[in-house]
Amino acid sequence: MIDWTHFTPESALVGGLMIGLACALLWLLNGRIAGISGITAGTFISAGTERNWRQAFVLGLVLSSWLWLMMAPLPVAEVTGNYGLLAAAGLLVGIGARLGSGCTSGHGVCGLARLSMRSLAATLTFMGVAVVTVFIVRHLL
Amino acid sequence: MKKHWFLSLSAFICGLLFGLGLLMAGMANPAKVLGFLDIAGLWDPSLALVMIGAIAIAFVAFWYSKKMPQSLLKTKFNWPDATAITRPLLAGSALFGLGWGLVGLCPGPALVLAGTGSVEGLIFIVFMLIGFRLVDYFQAK
Fold first, then answer.
1. Total domains present in chain A
2. What value does the mean pLDDT take over residues A94-122?
3. Residue A2: inside a domain
4. A1 lies in a domain?
5. Which of A122, B12, B13, B91 has the most C-beta neighbours closer than 10 Å?
6. Does the residue A4 lie in any domain?
7. Could you list the residue range(s) of the whole structural domain that residue A116 is in?
8. pLDDT tens track for A47-57
């Protein structure tokens, strides 16, 4: 059943278009894929100019909420306060994204937009596992 | 100004725009992401619209770029060359999905959340970075 009280079609679509525009600009201007996990990991292992633009991208992402705050109050973020769970999830996401060569942005947005079957396989896998995980946590445990 | 400054400036703006898009879409709120992944409960389809909007714009950029000899800032387009659906791709994506489903955070939203000064976001990011480094360390061996 659709959760009509939380479903926000307009802002979701506008936000999605902004994310798509960011991916489009990074590709058309820099010739690089906007994959957050690869870019972030690359700030450690790449060198020179390849490192600089990655650091700049991550800095922009981290500072985006500051720019938002100049225009409007920040939207609420409800996140679990269980630090052990956050640490475990962060580790799994880090290992998984690196081993799987991408995350929601690199495979889920850019990969699907390139019509890559490899990214489709990755996206279906992480979406499927995430859905099953939420089902177990919320409805079985 | 030298070319690498323009590359970093454009990457910085793309990072900002990506983060603003996540905030606009409500995707920096893990509860909203979990609302999408929980298909057995009250379902919030917002994330699907975010992806459709983002993929649509990125698709046009990738398609258009096939006719361009190089990027607008005169770099080579870095087309991902891997096409094989491998065991690490699927295993990594599965681990990623497990972590994503546990708390509703993936790398982009976590970086935005950490930028707001959220302790939860910071813990997630620290362990995500450890995960990146672990994989890079073992893959380099």
1. 1
2. 98
3. no
4. no
5. A122
6. no
7. 9-140
8. 888 999 999 99
Model confidence at B1: pLDDT above 80: no
Q: Nearest-CA distance from B81 to chain A in Å?
A: 10
Q: Say yes or no for a CB contact (<8 Å) between B12 and A18.
A: no
d(CA B21, CA B129): 23
**Per-residue model confidence as pLDDT tens digits over B67-120:** 999 999 999 999 999 999 999 999 999 999 999 999 999 999 999 999 999 999
Check A121 against B37: CB less than 8 A apart.
Answer: no
Residue A63 lies in a domain: yes
DSSP string, A113-138: HTT-HHHHHHHHHHHHHHHHHHHIII
Contacts of A38 in chain B (CB under 8 A): none
B41 residue type, one letter: G
Q: pLDDT at position B140, please?
A: 87
Distance CA B14, CA B11 (A): 5
A127-136 b/e (C-beta count within 10 Å ≥ 16 → b): bebbbebbbe
Q: Find the CB nearest B97 among A88, A114, A125.
A: A125
Mean pLDDT (chain B) is 97
Q: Over the range B2-15, which residues count as b (16 or more CB within 10 Å of their CB) and which as e?
A: eebebbbbbbbbbb
- pLDDT tens for B104-115 read 999 999 999 999
